[in-house]
Each structure stands twice: as C-alpha cells, then as structure tokens.
Amino acid sequence: MSDKIHVARRHDSALKHVTGQALYIDDMPEPPGTLHAALVLSKVACGRLMRLDADAAKTMPGVVAVLGPHDIPGRNDIAAIGKNEPLFALDRVEFAGQTLAMVVAETLDAARAAAAKVVVEIEAGEPILDIATALARESYVQAPATILRGDPDAALAAAPHRLTAEFSVGGQEHFYLESQIAFALPGEDGDITVHSSTQHPTEVQHVCARVLGWDFNRVTAVVRRLGGGFGGKESNATWVAAAAAIAANHTGRPVKLRLPREVDMVTTGKRHGFDYRYTVGFDSEGRVLALDAVLAADAGWSLDMTPGVVTRALTHTDNAYWIPHFRAVGYACRTHKQSNTAFRGFGGPQGVVVMEDALDRIAHHLGRDPVEVRALNFYAEGRDETPYGQTVDENHLERCWAEVKAGGELERRRAEIDAFNAANPVLKRGLGLFPLKFGISFNLPHMNQAGALVHVYTDGSIRLNHGGTEMGQGLFIKVAQVVAEVFQVDVDRIRPSATSTAEVPNTSPTAASTGSDLNGWAAWDAANTIRSRMVAYAAEHFGVAETDIEFADGTVRIARPGSNQVLTFGELAKLCWLGRVSLSATGYYKTPKIHWDPVSMRGRPFFYFSFGAAMAEVAIDTLTGESRVLRADLVQDCGRSLNPAIDLGQIEGAFVQGQGWLTCEELWWDASGRLRTAGPSTYKIPGSRDVPPVFNVTLLDNAPSREATIFRSKAVGEPPLMLATAVWTALKDAIGAVGSRRTPVRLDAPATPERVLAAVERARRESRTAAP
Amino acid sequence: MASPPQQELRRRSMIAAAATTAAIGTVPAALAQSSAETPPEAAKATTLKVSFTVNGKPRDLELDPRTTLLDALREGMNLTGTKKGCDHGQCGACTVLLDGRRINSCLTLAVMHPGADITTVEGLGTPDRLHPMQAAFVKHDGYQCGYCTPGQICSAVAVLAEIEAGIPSHVTTDLNAKPQLTGAELRERMSGNICRCGAYSNIVDAITEVAGSKA
Q1: What is the distance in angstroms between the Cα of B25 and the nearest Cα belonging to chain A?
Q2: 3.40.50.2300, 3.10.20.30, 2.60.40.10, 3.90.420.10: which CATH number matches B48-123?
Q3: Which residue intervals define the domain Aldehyde oxidase/xanthine dehydrogenase a/b hammerhead in the entry (chain A) (predicted)?
Q4: What ipTM score was computed for the predicted complex, to two decimals?
Q5: A689, B191 in Cβ contact below 8 A?
Q6: Model pLDDT for residues A145-160, shown as the tens digit of each residue
Q7: pTM of the full structure
Q8: Interface contact flag, A17 B149, Cβ < 8 Å
C-alpha cells in the first residue's frame, strides 16, 4: 500500500495560498521600464470601421505608443484552429467588445485615460444576436455536423409514442477570479518571454510568434499558476498574450496587459448557449426507440473552438442511454457576439441535457416514474454501442444509480416531498436525479499527447516539469505524487516548476479533464527512465541483480547475500553521478486506442468513460420564482483516485459551477448587442449561500479504471459539472407540483427567478384550463 | 520605525526611479528617451500624505488622493497578497482588516484612513507560523486556485469577531440574543467573498473548526 498515491495530499501551493505568498502574474515584481497597456474596444456589434484616430491619445501624458492592425509585424490573426480572427479589427467590426487598438503607456492610469481618447467611427450594420435569427439566415461558422445511426425517420414513424419539444440553455461566463493577464518581457535579440495566465502555453507561443512573424523558438511562454481557468484561458488568454508581445516588441520594454473585469467580460468568449429541438420515439414502457435532435450553438463571431464544442455536444447527446436509431445535427451559429469557446465540459453539458429533458417528458406522457424510465434506458450489455460507434465499457451506471438512490434515501424523501407539496400552497419542493457518462480524451486524437522533464539532483532532490498548467485543480501535486511513487521518496522532495514552452515543448492545453491522465503518465515515463538507469548502475556497482534493488521510504536497499546495504535516495543519486549516469530525462505519453473520423463522425474518440450520478432537492417560492438547492447527493467515478481530497474538491466545485450555469448565471445582451452583464453586480455566480446546505459527495468505491490509466485513476475536472443537471430536473419537478401535472414543464436555463415564475404561471394556467 | 516613502519598493513607480538613473544597462534606450520627454506624471499630480499601520509596521505614504487602499497596498507597499478580482467591491478578493473590521480595500481610498491599523493576509501569519484560520483553510482544503483565498481568510477572521461582538446578520433570528455559530450564519456572513472554484463547503468547515476551538 503506497503512501504516495491514492492518498489525500494538500495542494502544492497550500501554504502560499493561505499566506498570500503565491505569486500570480500581477504580483510579480516589475522590472524598471515596465509599461502598461489598455485596449480600445468597439462599442458597436457589427459594422464597418470607418476611422480610428489616435492623434489625441498619442499626445496624452505618459503614452508611449498606440498600436493598431498596421503595427502588427506578422499576421493579424489569433485564431486557435481556424484562420482570419484578427487581433485588432481591420475593417469589419464583428461584436461589441472587439479589440481595435491598444495604448501602451508609462502607467496603467495613463494607458486607460489615453485609450478613452481614441476616436472610433463605425458605420453600424444590423447585428445577428440570437440563434434563431442565425439559423434563419444560415449564418454559420462551420457546416452543420451530424451523428447518425440507423434510420431515425422510419423508427420514429413506427414508434408507438412520439414527442417533439424545444428548449434552450444559456451561455456562461468563466469568471475566473484572476482576470486575463499577460506580461511580455523582451530579452536577448528582442526575443520575448511572456508570462501568461494561460491553460495553453504552446498556443500562446505559437500565436505570439505568428503575430510577430517569428519562428516559434523566439518566444517562451511561462505560467506558474492561474487564478482560475475553466476553459476561459485557452484561446482567450492567447490573444491577450499576443497583444502584450506586440507591444513589448514595439517598445523594446516589458509590457503588462491585464484586463479589468468589465473589459474581460465584454471581450472574451464564454460557454456556448444552445437552442434545441428534438423528436423522440418510445414504447409504452418508456424505452427510447429513436431520437432526432437539432442542437444549435451560439458560436459568437468566429470559429474559435466551436467545432470541438459541437462535436462533444453531439457525442454526449446520448448521455447514459441506449438509443437504437439516432440523429443529432449540430449547428454552429455565427452571431455578432463574443466568440464562444471552451468552458469546463466543452459542449458535454449542452449535450447531456437533451435526453434528460426527453426522458422527463416521456415519463410524464406515460405517467411513469422518471427515475425508473431513466434506468430503463441505461446502456447495458447488448445495448452498449454509442451512436458514434464506441462501445461503452466498464459501465458503472447501475452502481452509481443504486448508490445515489440509497445514499439519498430516494423513496423516503420522494414521499416526504410529495406530502410537503400537498400541504404547502406557496413553497414547492422538487427532486431530480441524473446519471452521467462522460468521454475522456480530447476529441481530436493528435491532442492526446504530453511531455515531461524530470531532473534528479545529487542531493536526491527532484525537479519536475510537464506541459500541464496549475489552475487550482491540483494537477501539480497529483503529478508530483506520481513521481514520488516511482522513486519512493517523500513528495516534499519534488519541486514542481512553472510550465514553460522552453522546458517541455509542443504541448496540448490543460483541458478536457486530461491534465493528470496525460501529464501523470509523461512524468512517470521520465521518472521511470531515470530510475531504471539508477537501478542498472547500482546493480553493476554493487554486483547484484537489478531485482535485488528496492526503493522504499526515501532509501534504496541493496539486497546482497549476508547484507542489506541501505543508501538514502540522495546517496544513490550522487553515486550515479560519480559513475557518470544521466539523472535527467524527458518523458512522453500518447493515449492509446483512440481514433476519430470527423467526416463520418465515427470512431473511438474516448480512451474511457467516466460515470456518475446525482440527486438534488430544491425548493421554489411560487410567488417570486426564487429557488434554493436544499440538498445534493453525488457519486462520482474517479477510478482509483490519485488524491481523494483534491478530487472531492473538484467534484463539489464543478457541481456548484454547473448549478450556477443552470440557475443564476444569466448573460444578457441589449438590443444593440452590448453585453450588459459585465461584472459581478449584474452577473451572479454562486456564492456561499447557494451551495446545498446538505452536500454529500462520495467517490465511487473500488472502481479502478480497467484501461491502463495512470495508476488506474480517472479524470475528474469536467464530469461532475454535469451532475448539476439534477438541479434543473428537480426545479422542473417542483414547478410541476404547482398544477395538475397535465402538461410537461418547459424550463429554459438559466432557471432564473423570472423563468421559474413564468413556468409556475404556465403550470397554473394550464391546470386551470384543464380543469372541468 | 517608519520607513521614508522614497525607500518603499513601489512596483509601479519604479519607472520614476529608473528614469533618474537611466544609465542602468538593462534599461532600454527608449525608456530614457521617453522619460526625458515626458516628466513623470507623479511630479505633476497632487499628492497627499497618509500614515497608518500595516501588519504592525508604521507606514508613511505620499499618494495621489484617488489611490484606493488596495492599490496602495499592492503598488505602494508591495503587499500583493491582497488580490484585485473586480475592483468594484463585488467579489471580496481584496478584503483586509481595518481596525479589526473587514473592508473591501478596492472601495476605500488610502488617504481616508490616517492612523488606522490595517491587517492583510501577510500580517495574519506566514507559512512557518500560520494563523489558526490559515491552518484551518489548509487542513480543510478551503481553496483551489487560491486567488480569492486571502480575501476569504481575512473575511473569515472578521466574521468570527463579528459574531463574538454580537453583531447580527441577515439570517440571525433573534436580534436580542448573541448570534449563533451556525452553518447558515457563516454562509450568510461569507457571502461577499465569491469563489469561482466553488470551495465554499470546505471554507465553512475551516471557519467552523476555528470557531469551535475558540469556544
């Protein structure tokens, strides 16, 4: 039994976090000559840029430069996967908040004051601001994508029952507490080191080089920690870094660009909102026979990472359910809004809600228990192939479902809630359950690779570097635990170091929940290479077999006939050095087994699936529409967790974030396309009062990953966010208790008090008209 | 001892210092040139003097009167433990203790507090000598990314003092009785400090533990 892995270890920066000593980029000492930048933004959502006059700004005190599209030495393009997404708009303005220019000045105040003096004239056009309009005008950022299996049209026509429904979910602001920031420093030959609060240092490196017209090797991207990411610091962080790099190159001085909260919120992309329309066919028991669904995403103004988000939504529309005949079509609607991007779950949350809505309606239609109807449709032996051709292996759905029902005392509480609702005309309570199946791996196979660099020094201390970024999720401590396990040293002997494109190149973003899966294996590989060398040398040196050498408790035991020599790990390291053995190694990992055909939309995109289940109880006030989550019970499959304390935190936090997305977090654009929820005063993320007062979270016990994941652990970053879908289901249940339950409840997300109240009024009206 | 203002490490006024010693090899020529053309803004701006105590040390500052306490701490005194999350008093990341009470340091001007006793997260404890609240946050994993943590901890320390002083909150049922140390009270009182990672449950557990050991 190891004391290195599968145990609770505090976050690598725990002591620094609580004492204020953890340095974020804005906390770094500024070298003499540091300049500060401020952006000039479009206030118009759509139009032609007629004039951008910076003459007044240039003469403001302290201003060093005003930079626009013509000051970009390389390509004016910050696209992550597409092309022609300008850093500074050249002629077309595509959304309110688009960057037009940047002021660089001696002080932050001077930069911001001058940015306000830049005169902008835009000939305004007619913006497209919603999905329906975009669909009507066929305004897309990419061609529609389809996953098809069987003959859904025929199966629907033949089905004993059919239902058609529509609903929508909103987007979500990432609201990382540390807003976007980059600090670019010119060095030797003008080469740039950019400290970026990014989840994707390699993309920062590439795009900085692209806008500068340089080889990649002239830019180094460094990140020690992020004050939150959640997907919002992939493509969004990239352009901030690129802007800082251009300014540093132009002025020859260090330049810091930090976005004030409001600027961050109006410039950066968010989670995609979706509109849905589906028809589902089913038998009299509630077994789903066919689904035909349209999922339309609000991509915002550019491609960004929308293709991946739509693909993940489509590959998660089935969620936990076997659907013999299946068609899901994903539209990526181009609107004149912020370019929506990755957000924890990456389309998965927007995919899984479809069947949850459908199964509630099926249960309602048949007068059956929605909990039972869900279980009836679970993937199971013989009905275990997803619509895109991957088999659902190692299926923990039934286990998670049974555990959450037992832990949450489903039957007792269902009866209790029904009794409460019968007795209370104003307050209504509701219960919702949700099963989860979530695919782990980047949908694009080539992204599933990682590198690491491990050094053992001659005192036995170890330096660890890998391509993953630390944004609070505990990746650094998890990977350090892996290395500690390989060398059997205390984890405190291992020093994780800032992620840097100069140490581990060509990395993938820390995203798609894959951080510890990928980087854990890469670090294991590096450490194991060094360990193998140490073992070989020790065997030769002491004249014993390699199998006689044992690493344990920070020591190395040399078992010889008649003696058991023990060296400290450091002593062996020094011995190896004297024997001229390299104590440094790179490590590499690529996820096996995965493949994906983006044209046929078939393959095995995921190395494995992660499972979970949730039960949530809510209360609503039918006079105001306000709601509370009273209790949540969660079971999450983490394989054999590398660090249960870190994983518990991830599950709780993800659930709360998902709850926010589905309830209180509402993005609101005015009729001219300006985002008016651009700060915490108008955009409400969950606070301490919104967390369920009874919050029972358990890791699925005794469920080591069957696939060869790092020490049989499983990813945890994204899957539990979707567990909050149970809250949405519970709200619909509570609203349904208002009337006679003759019509099913439609509840668009976010389920704000206004939306809940409107749904309550509908339920009341419909039960009145239905009455004799 | 009070250190004279010119000896303070000022992260954003180092430019002025550098301009006067433009011969420093690493300072690019562009800096010397632009600084020569544009006199440092600080020289023209009206400044005010203010003296207060920060983390037990007397501090004498000369500031643009519009400088927030947050910027004075971060830029003027290099106390970067206190974070800027929204700069509008809505997220709580900048919470510090001012004469024992918590305050959003981004919502108050430094010059408004002559003679005040200010405590930031750095003044509560250090990694070697943690304040009990800091130790409890470590024990209960009351953070993830850590960015809101200094504000959460300062707020939590003040919350216990408020309850101790009998100050009621929105959820206190009996205004004449001493407020109870319930989960509902703690969640209500901590609601001004938002945590996007969602570590709220662990934060309440940490505060509860400290409150319990005090009782």
Answers
A1: 11
A2: 3.10.20.30
A3: 19-126
A4: 0.97
A5: yes
A6: 999 999 999 999 999 9
A7: 0.95
A8: yes
